[in-house]
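Case study: Heme exporter protein D.
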Amino acid sequence: MFGEHGFFILACYGVSAFTLGALALWTVLDGRGVRRRLDELEARGVRRRSAGRDA
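Here is what the predicted structure looks like once written out:
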C-alpha cells in the first residue's frame, strides 16, 4: 500500500498522533491547574484589577 517507504510513513503518522495527543492532554491538565490556582486566589479574596470595585 505505501510501498518501500511504508514503515517511515506510518512511523511519522504515529509520532505526529502521539505529539498531538500529548499536547492536548498537557493543555487540559494545565488548564485545570490554572483554574485551581485562580479559585484558591479568589477564595483568599484576591481579585483582578479588571473586575472593578463592585465585583
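For the exam, be able to explain this: The mean pLDDT is 90.
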